[in-house]
Write a structure and sequence with these properties.
This protein is of the alpha/beta class. The chain folds into 2 domains: about 170 residues, VC0802-like (2-Layer Sandwich), CATH 3.30.2130; about 210 residues, Rossmann fold, CATH 3.40.50. The protein is about 40% helix and about 20% strand. Strands 1, 2, 3, 4, 5, 6, 7, 8 and 9 form a 9-stranded mixed sheet that branches. Helix 5 runs parallel beside helix 6, helix 5 packs across helix 10 and helix 8 crosses helix 14. The two termini are about 40 Å apart. The mean pLDDT is about 95. The structure holds adenosine-5'-triphosphate and magnesium ion. Magnesium ion binds next to loops.
Length: about 400
């Protein structure tokens, strides 16, 4: 093969006894994520993931893009493998990086030698290859302090590898090492970012969306599925549970005091999300809540909505400014879809004067007229499980 990817592991390296478990998970994730792009060998040696196309049919550029969004990797580079001798290394540098060197004003060589049997030290490798490069590219000066371009040579167990500068990886922990989480996904800016952030901390993500047809349109549902699909670029494929929510919202509207609409509704959401979560092996809920953003996101409101669940509720955005959230939404590519104008079910029955400092007693009293269990049972029975994967293509 004349090109392979080397990906450096991130925080996994710090994991003592669990390291193998983390590495196995990452290897599996990479293998799965490479499938749409052809046949690849994926293996881990010395805290580095090797991704090697097995034949010429592989879509190497597609695979490279996909590798940049795999959690657990801090940096990655495309390399040319070659035999472990200085002539072969120099030939590989010329063939693979020669054009880059022609364009650069200055360069240096950095070498690493994990094969301690190799006869030259790292410094000797750099000096020797650097000297040959300087001869071959007279317009490109050696500059070891501020080079415009750096050539890397790595002499490893089975081969030597040459490459240019590495690119940053997606960071975080391999998806799945932390278990599974159920994200309450609306069509807004925040919850897709929340799902992304928890996937980055190693959670496998499943989503639940509360859908209030015909108060919200089919397009609003497709928008949410598309947002989930965009998140799968990082999290890997996921299931979205689409829960019919109209009956519950109408029951709240017809039976509860208006100032409690949102709180009662959110308690139903959390309760239903937790039941589906437990059914599907998820150990936590994830929301895009953000302290102080709207009336239902005060401490008191969170106490009241959190009181219906007994698993942790992760709110990774709780202390962030809107600008910070938007920056991430743009980075992960969900922003443009989030701001499409289809309405969300929360906005349909929003009270004019919502309670911002509710008490649990007050809310329990407000929801007393409702047949809670029957409403929840029907909503869960009507839930549709939709599978989404990045590779399936846009859903809008
Ligand atoms: P977002 O940008 O995620 O819509 P938001 O700022 O609009 O959040 P709220 O509408 O108060 O805030 O919702 C808070 C959180 O509740 C959302 O981040 C999401 O996790 C969850 N949520 C709201 N509406 C829905 C829905 N229709 N289906 C599933 N989860 C929802
Ligand atoms: Mg919203």
């Amino acid at each position: 093969m004349n090109e392979i990817f080397l990906m450096k592991l991130g925080e996994i390296v710090l994991k003592g006894g669990n390291k193998h478990q983390f590495e196995n998970r990452l290897r599996g994730n990479v293998r799965r994520r490479m499938k749409p792009y052809g046949n690849f060998n994926v293996y881990i040696l010395q805290s580095t993931v090797y991704v090697e196309p097995k034949d010429d049919c592989a879509d190497v550029d597609g695979a490279w893009e996909a590798c940049k969004s795999i959690f657990g990797v801090v940096s990655l580079c495309r390399c040319r493998p070659c035999e472990k001798n200085m002539d072969a290394i120099f030939e590989a540098v010329e063939a693979y990086l020669g054009e880059d060197l022609d364009m650069a004003a200055s360069f240096k060589v950095e070498s690493k030698r994990s094969d301690k049997q190799f006869p030259l030290t790292s410094i000797q490798i750099s000096q020797e290859i650097g000297g040959r490069i300087a001869e071959a590219h007279p317009n490109c000066q050696v500059d070891v302090h501020h080079p415009a371009y750096t050539v890397y040579v790595e002499v490893r167990d089975f081969s030597a590898y040459v490459h240019g500068p590495a690119e940053p990886g997606a960071g975080g922990l391999p998806t799945g090492v932390g278990g599974r989480g159920m994200c309450l996904l609306s069509g807004g800016i925040d919850s897709p970012v929340a799902a992304y952030m928890m996937a980055k901390r190693g959670l496998e993500i499943e989503c639940v969306h509360f859908f209030s047809y015909p108060y919200t349109s089919q397009l609003a549902k497709d928008k949410v599925l598309e947002l989930a699909r965009l998140v799968t670029r990082f999290s890997g494929r996921m299931t979205v549970n689409v829960v019919p929510f109209t009956e519950i919202q109408e029951a709240i509207r017809d039976n509860c005091p208006e100032e409690y609409f949102t709180l009662v509704m959110r308690r139903f959401m959390m309760d239903i999300a937790q039941r589906i979560a437990k059914e599907d092996g998820c150990g936590c809920l994830i929301t895009g809540e953000n302290l102080g953003q709207v009336a239902s996101q005060t401490m008191e409101a969170m106490t009241v909505t959190g009181a219906v669940v007994d698993i942790p509720v992760f709110m990774p955005l709780v202390g962030m400014d809107k600008e910070e959230i938007i920056t991430i939404a743009r980075k992960i590519g969900t922003m443009e879809t989030s701001i499409l104008p289809y309405e969300d079910c929360c906005t349909v029955f929003t009270p004019k004067h919502p309670k911002t400092k509710p008490s649990l007693g007050g809310v329990l009293h407000a929801e007393e007229p409702l047949d809670r269990e029957a409403l929840i049972a029907r909503a869960i029975a009507g839930t549709e499980k939709v599978k989404v994967a990045y590779h399936d293509g846009a859903l809008l």
